[in-house]
Amino acid sequence: MRNLDFTPLYRSAIGFDRLFNQMEKSAANNNAGYPPYNIEQQDENHYRITMAVAGFGEEQLDITQQQNKLIVRGTREAKDDASRQYLYQGIAERDFERKFQLADYVKVIGAEMEHGLLHIDLEREIPEAEQPRKIAINGTRLLESE
């Protein structure tokens, strides 16, 4: 049972249809398992995505942030492997494109390769105007959040 049907939830969850559509789209992703990755929350506003990209060099990887979407592409050079005869080929040698949906105010702050792992560091930076603030009761002054 790999396919989830969110239809019953549409009746009772108002305004979440975009979320359910994204979940259905990501469940239908054909390349869902390649390359494997981890998403780590380092603290309240810092995250790290680690992808296993063994066999790819830095020049073969492309990282793009476009609005609230992070796209990581790996492109291998076409090789003529007619001379090779594999008895077993367990190492994937294919191009990939992995997309991550980012929350508002999350931006990429850096990326590095280490031992075949691509580390992408993210930071959530909420603008001052969007941060919570305390309102005084029976008063007109605004108190900054503590």
From TrEMBL:
<dbReference type="Pfam" id="PF00011">
    <property type="entry name" value="HSP20"/>
</dbReference>
<protein>
    <submittedName>
        <fullName>Heat-shock protein Hsp20</fullName>
    </submittedName>
</protein>
<keyword id="KW-0346">Stress response</keyword>
<feature type="domain" description="SHSP">
    <location>
        <begin position="28"/>
        <end position="140"/>
    </location>
</feature>
<comment type="similarity">
    <text>Belongs to the small heat shock protein (HSP20) family.</text>
</comment>
<dbReference type="InterPro" id="IPR002068">
    <property type="entry name" value="A-crystallin/Hsp20_dom"/>
</dbReference>
<dbReference type="InterPro" id="IPR037913">
    <property type="entry name" value="ACD_IbpA/B"/>
</dbReference>
<dbReference type="InterPro" id="IPR008978">
    <property type="entry name" value="HSP20-like_chaperone"/>
</dbReference>
